[in-house]
Specification:
With 321 residues, the chain is an alpha+beta fold. The chain is built from 13 helices and twelve strands. Helix 7 crosses helix 10 and helix 9 crosses helix 12. The longest helix is centred in the C-terminal third of the chain and has 12 residues.
């Protein structure tokens, strides 16, 4: 439902002069692909001019302009994969995105729980609407593009890339993890601190073990602004232009951002927490899928696409990044 969207009655605000919209019972797209490609799917009305007599009986047709049928929109979605993921997530509050890492085609995009789009077409009672809006798991929100969450340890790959590119730390850079690092008064812990940490680790081992201490160390050496620059190059911190409404930007913080928003300077401890994907960082599941695709395809700045229809927001296939 979050991809296809739904159709509903034409409201006064929807009237554009298109005679189709004035037909009784006509429906137009209100959300999802139905709305984004509504004009293409709708087609164009035809007309006929006829001569009638005083009794209203048709005598002859004077002119005719045939209508144009609507276009088909072919989605990139793999129906079997979409269905399997939907069954797996069921009524959980969750989202999943699967995409082709080379072409950017979205093979599955599931936001759970979902809702019945037919309810909007047939007319919804106030009670049913209130139940949807007040549902604790927010079924009306497409969490795949509008849910914003801290990326956590998935972000460590970005920090590692920033370290490699800036020369701050190479693949052989080693850090000793005893489970805790001190910075001023606070202590910053590794997830394995209760077991004495990970010991000595190089970058590959730190990624494999998801060692927090290692990424605290290199984040402090890199600085938050260079981490932020790498994150944006991998699709984080801005909407990606997928053909759906309601996509959110997420947030990739920087020193200037914090000062402008809060009036308080950036603190080194915030850099450490950013290094493990926490603090102010927010990403959407779609952004994380794009980040992973750009990592896995060798650095091509692929962008997500949901249809093979040349529509108003159709992105390109990506370019060298």
């Amino acid at each position: 439902a979050h991809i296809v969207g739904y159709v509903s009655s034409v409201s006064e605000a929807d009237l554009t002069g298109d005679p189709l919209l004035e037909l009784p019972g006509f429906r137009i797209g209100k959300n999802g692909v139905e709305r984004v490609y509504d004009e293409s799917l709708r087609g164009k009305a035809g007309n006929s001019r006829v001569e009638v007599n005083a009794y209203g009986r048709e005598i002859r047709e004077l002119a005719r302009q045939d209508g144009q049928p609507g276009d088909d929109v072919v989605l990139t979605i793999d129906a079997g994969l979409q269905e399997a993921i939907s069954r797996r997530l069921a009524d959980e509050s969750a989202a999943a995105v699967v995409m082709d890492i080379h072409r950017g085609e979205i093979l599955a995009m599931v936001s759970a729980p979902s809702y019945d789009p037919n309810a909007f077409n047939l007319g919804m009672s106030t009670k049913a609407w209130r139940a949807l809006v007040q549902h604790p798991r927010k079924p009306l929100i497409n969490k795949a593009i509008a849910g914003q969450y801290p990326p956590g340890s998935t972000f460590k790959m970005i920090v590692a890339l920033a370290a490699l590119e800036t020369g701050v730390a190479g693949a052989s850079h080693r850090v000793f993890c005893n489970g805790v690092i001190e910075l001023g008064n606070p202590n910053f812990h590794c997830w394995r601190h209760r077991y004495g940490g990970h010991g000595w680790l190089d970058m590959k081992q730190a990624i494999a073990q998801s060692c927090d201490i290692y990424f605290y160390d290199i984040a402090r050496r890199i600085g938050v602004d260079r981490i932020a620059d790498m994150a944006r190059r991998f699709g984080l911190g801005t909407a990606l232009g997928v053909e759906l409404l309601g996509e959110r930007d997420g947030l990739v913080p920087s020193k200037d951002w914090k000062l402008a928003v809060t009036g308080v300077p950036w603190q080194m401890g915030e850099t450490l927490i950013t290094g493990i994907g926490q603090a102010y960082l927010l990403t959407t599941p779609l952004q994380l899928a794009v980040m992973t695709a750009r990592l896995a395809n060798g650095g091509i700045a692929v962008t997500p696409k949901l249809s093979r229809h040349k529509g108003p927001t159709q992105p390109g296939d990506g370019s060298n990044g």
